[in-house]
Amino acid sequence: xxxxxQNQVVQVAxxxxxxxxxxxxxxxxxxxxxxxxxxxxxxxKNKELVGLVVAFVGQSSHKNLKSILAVLDGxxxxxxxxxxxxxxAAKYYQVNLGEMVFTALPAWYRRTENRPIPHQxxxxxxxxxxxxxxxxxxxxxxxxxxxxxxxxxxxxxxxxSHISASAAQICRQLKDKGLVDSAxxxxxxxxxxxxxxxxxxxxxxxALTKIRTEKDPFKVHLLDGVTGSGKTExxxxxxxxxxxxxxxxxxxxxxxxxxxxxxxxxxxRINGQMAILHSGLSDGARARVWQHAxxxxxxxVVSTRSGIFTPFKNLGxxxxxxxxxxxxxxxxxxxYSARDLAVLRGKxxxxxxxxxxxxxxxxxxxxxxxxxxxxxxxxxxxxxxxMPSLTLQNTRSKTFKKGxxxxxLHAIKNHLAEGNQVLVFLNRRGWSHKLICHDCGWVxxxxxxxxxxxxxxxxxxxxxxxxxxxxxxxxxxxxxxxxEVETMGVGTExxxxxxxxxxxxxxxxxxxxxSVKTPAQWQKNLEVVRSGEPCVIxxxxxxxxxxxFPLLSLVVVVNVDNSFFSADFRATEYLAQLxxxxxxxxxxxxxxxxVIIQTQFPEHEFFQMLFQAxxxxxxxxxxAQRDAMGFPPYTHIAIIRGQHRSERxxxxxxxxxxxxxQKNDDISVMGPLPAPMQKRQKLYRMQLILNSNDRRxxxxxxHQLKSLSLAQVEQKVAWFVDIDPVxxx
Length: 729
What we know:
Layout: E1 4-13, E2 22-27, E3 38-43, E4 47-57, E5 70-71, H1 80-92, H2 97-104, E6 122-125, H3 129-135, H4 140-152, E7 155-156, H5 167-176, E8 180-183, H6 202-213, E9 220-225, H7 231-244, E10 248-252, H8 259-267, E11 274-277, H9 283-295, E12 300-303, E13 315-321, H10 338-349, E14 353-357, H11 362-370, E15 374-378, E16 389-394, E17 400-401, E18 404-405, H12 406-417, E19 421-425, E20 434-437, E21 454-456, E22 461-463, E23 470-472, E24 485-488, H13 492-502, E25 507-511, H14 519-530, E26 535-539, E27 552-557, H15 571-583, E28 594-599, H16 605-612, H17 615-629, E29 636-644, H18 647-661, E30 667-680, E31 683-692, H19 695-706, H20 711-714, E32 718-723
Helix pairs in contact: 1-2, 1-10, 4-5, 6-7, 16-17
């Protein structure tokens, strides 16, 4: 056994539910680790885990401490500011520090074996197009890859997998022929930056000036700009400001699909190194971005939600694009909000934070109205085009052809004939969302979830979108034996098929989780749209934000009425954001925009408030109602969610929790209540909804509650706390 000094003790954060950290001693012959570095430690009889050193203490209250087995990092993986962020986040979201740390760390850094991070290269062209074309006359695939790098580079070979599965090998062949160069970081030299000479609108100039002249080192700026108003241009100019100061920028986007577009826009305009970070990358690639950002080898990181934890050598600003988007809220494990942590990180690092959106969340808007955030408004499109014209199409007396009315089909035909592109938006995938018996009313439901089954025609199967269980088409109705069983309703698959039949001479491109499962599939579909040819795009929510399709002139929105009957008080806020965002895809370049919304309730006050005025007016009216009713952002909500195979056991457990909570007069407790989806994957789901005017009191009460001795029931019931939930399910 190695000798240890029991007076030299470190606290190590581990991914364990029972303690924020554990004490370990350091062997006398081991160089002590530094705070923020990773170590390998024993746990129990046979386990060895990776942990993060969070503090040194003189002595431990525990006797016979186990000692550290190995030190994995000579330098801190996470600096003091990153550790402060994780500690505050763990406290706020009511989780152990170890859980927060291992939510932040890329998978590569969580492993006990510390293999070197593999190399992965960026590629750019080294010769002119005509030179390459001459050399590659008999190498068609190599020429195709070269052309793609020439048009979109610099690129990693992974982003060209839709062209060839052997893209990496082809790039190496091109390098051997002297046609491309490679580097481990995305090399953007002084010759690559382009200044298009854009003249800023008065709103853009005013916003940029206010951000640049702000004296407070930490300030949150809400960049509230209508779609097409040039928010990205402001991002790029701020990034260039920071490059001159030798500072780095973190740019957060809500979806993987938005990273290539924003990356390319920025990369063409700056003289600095860039990186992309998202869950679609390999473990090694994500670890490499952390490594490069921490060493200062990259100036700009464009990332999805998890990028908020990336260590930087000299972070100068955080930009959060589409800040309202629900994707910034993690819905599994540690349920953190990347947008809110961006603000917290800005405060810790004393740097500015810019939140950009055409439809700010009500929480952010409330901070802007109160003066807590600087409110910067962009109310004109940079191309001076008016906002799209809007038609609320009453569908009550209309006939449908696979989800679309004749007037909608006629409008689509006209826009395609003019050489433009059309987007048909429906936030429901599959062929049909119900299978129903016309004789007895039976509807096909999942055996394991409280959910209807969706029919997918290309699979000829019924599928549950919550547990992914699949069922064959029934030969007869299980309820009455009838064979009068038919599909009801429409999804993206059915609409796309109908459009393909109606417009045979045009491409129909579908974007949903069934048709676009990999970044390569996404890129392949995007290439069809960006070819400039007239086409019809059919998509779900993944297309509603951020994308710039210059030739898109018509947007048809199908089936939005369900939100009017939701029990969630945020339903109309989310619907308003969705409609404004998807409508903003039309008429962004030289094309005149038109939007058609198919609805059975064109006279609904929601439409009148949103479209006869504007989003800001609508939001302020909604905020007044929230204030009167005691809803967020004027109060604070947490939900305790539990699940169990026995409804009775679950109800008894939550009743015990509720009895402990009701002792606090500052907190209103609703429940136990069934979750909106009461059963999922064979487990019953129930919840307690906690509402309070005092955020601190709410958090203290939950912390005390988690410390209660309910071990006998806790072993049976899986439960967790969701702080600031964005959904009631």
